Amino acid sequence: MFTDLIYRLRAVFRREPVETEMDDELRFHLEQLVEHKVKAGMTRKESERRARMEFGGVDQVREDCREARGVRLIEIVAQDIRFGWRMLRKSPGFTVVAVLTLALGIGANTSVFSVTNAVLLEALPYRNESRLVMIWERNARSGNDHNVVSPANFLYWQESNAVFEQLSAFWDQEVTSTGRGEPQQIPAQVVTANLFSLLGVSPILGRDFSRDEGQEGRDHVVLISYGLWQREFGGDPEVRGKTLRLDGESYVILGVMPRDVSLFAPKGSFTGKIAELWLPFAWKERHRKPSGRYLTAVGRLKEGVSLVQAQTQMNSLVDDLVKKYPDFETGWGVNLVPAHADMVSHIRGTLLMLVAAVGFVLLIACANLANLMLGRAVTRERETAMRTALGAGRGRIIWQHLTESMMLALLGGLLGLLSAKWITLGLLALAPKDLHVKAGHLDWRLLLFVIAACLVTGIVFGVAPAFVAARTDPAGALRDGGRGGTGKRRARLRNAFAVAEIALSLIMLSAAGLLMKSFVRLSAVDPGFDARNMLTLRISLPGSKYAKDEEYIEFFNRLLERVRAVPGVRAATIGNSLPMSGMTPGTDFEIVGKPKPPRGEDRVTDVAKAGSDYFQTMGIRMLRGRSFNEREEAVASHVVVISEALARRYFPEEDPLGQKIVIDLGEKHEQSEIIGISADVKRDSLDSTSHPMSYWPHAELPFSSMMLAIRTDGDPLDKVGTIRGIVHEMDSELPLANVMTMDDVVGETVARQRFAALLLGVFACMALLLAGIGIYGVVSYAVGQRKQEFGIRLALGAKRRDVLLLVAQHGARLAVFGVTLGLLGTLALTGVLRGFLFGVGPHDASTLIQVAAFLGAVIFLACYLPALRATRVDPLIALRQD
In DSSP terms, which residues pair with 663 in a beta bridge? Predict the structure, then answer.
């Protein structure tokens, strides 16, 4: 067997020496047979004649040996590849068009799959990531099943559960870094000391947090990200032990974490940013009291414990908490979600939609190439007929054509793989920042995808033309100059491919049209405030320098006074959370003089802290009453402004003005009088519903981190330098963070919809272009085939308009069939877009009619050009042609 294997390998790679050896061996055996017969008494001439008769033809024996050794199949493949390469070189125009078309389709698919693979398919860089689970609280009343967690609940779960090896928690914030050039705010996570041991991640330099570094007084240590280490410390290997000044206090650097280590949970992020440093969470006794929810929790399941088992036990722990703290826990539950699925849930739908879109583009490209292959087969009909007449079977003809299509697919795939990098860069440049998409690297999945795409593509566009070519009638083709019996079959097949292109294009265009219309309607939504000419930024006062409420109030009042005096500034105000600028805190409240609602049905409100002219600066209408005055901004006067949504829900048949409410926020529980009712504002995004909102003067609920909103006469960004100078004069260690115009803030809330609509629109245009080219090719081919017919018609007196209409009818029939199938496909498939649409249904009639009309216009143009050429046929020249 080993000798036979060596022979086979030599026969593949060193064919000529093996052929020589085989010929020598055959001659030797023939001579041996002749000598044997001579010794038996025959003459040499008779012996040679008898020996050849018994031995058989040398050529036939040689072929039998090749097939016995398994060399014949390899020779056939190699011969077909060489022949296919020659044919592709003989038609450079066809080859270039085909390869570029495939490169476009395969490149787009490879690019989108690269991102999808990196985001959805690659495992998280943590130990046994399949056992990692995100733990959220579920609010039955609001339907929110991804609510952040109360520290008290987390501690109880950590101590009482029997299904997790470890539980850990974290929350996002931004810290001010000073002492290393210009002050800056850095996204950070405050984490329980066991987070990285739970994840199974170790620093690449230095050490992890120890258990006692999660205690108050020993928590001034920090781990930094690889990117921060490179950017701020130049990759210094001696960075361990150095200090960072954060929020005015010194922190010792313990170590450097690997790349891509941050556990980013979009639904629980307060900043929407990837952390660049980590601080230990110092537990205090007050954290054991049920108050507030702001932690994101993660756990590692024990070996052998399923998610269902874990959910069941955690539900029982929640029941215990409800019995123990009914006022705080009633109406709340727990929700366990696999960590990987949870972390990509915000982008999964968008990526899968793009995967489907580029898949449609590739299908249209395949249909287009199949039409090209069918047209090219006409010029090779004589060749196919000759090969069939010489003994080639149908399988041999099919194999040869499939070999050529596979060669085209591989060339297109190679070029597509090279172009995928640039397509990916463009895709990432268009992607919104909050999606946190990333490009994948060339791994086995991506390589397997490209190979599979090439193989499947080559078969899809090559198999039908190959089977049609194999059914060529040799006699008819050789006699009629290529107009054999397969002409009608080719025409029907080309028409079918053209109809498929039209249908697929209509589905793509309809989806893009629906998303674009949705985006336009979403962008036209009134946010409830005026975003024009407004600059927003955040200033955070470090607790080490500003420890008292009075210091917060005094600083921001002085800042507003100076900012309002800047030329070109029309108004300025502060707020802890401006509309669409991040999460807004919320709490329950009581209405003085009214009974407390049943447990689990508490009155709730979002809470905003605002300056005196907040409503005027933001352009929020006051419906009734008044806003805050300057005294109420400086001194706690126990007043509050409520939103229309709050008044409508909790004061349905009475006047809220003059009534008093008490909120459960912090240690103060003062009665505050309702002095005004404001119009509702979109707090989260343009497609969100307006929640009940209460606005409190800054003096009522002082906060160290506030946003500044400045309305200007001209470009708001022109004032950034002036504002930075004012802040640095007041405190040189304070950075300006999140500097943006309000127009950009609003724009970011619709960035995902814009991204989806734009990319789907681009892919739909690609599909439309390919479909237009395909229709043009089909009609042009039909015109060429009927050239003599048109010549005869014109010679017999037909008008050119009649010929034009005759060709147009052919295109119209294709359009009607294609549009009908496309509309049916659209009605069946666009329902999956329901979650991406705003203000428009997935079967919006006006959009579908407009898209069908637009596609019809493109088809008309694609048909008109060859039809015009048909009217210019010279009857004499047409009749002379074969």
Answer: 589
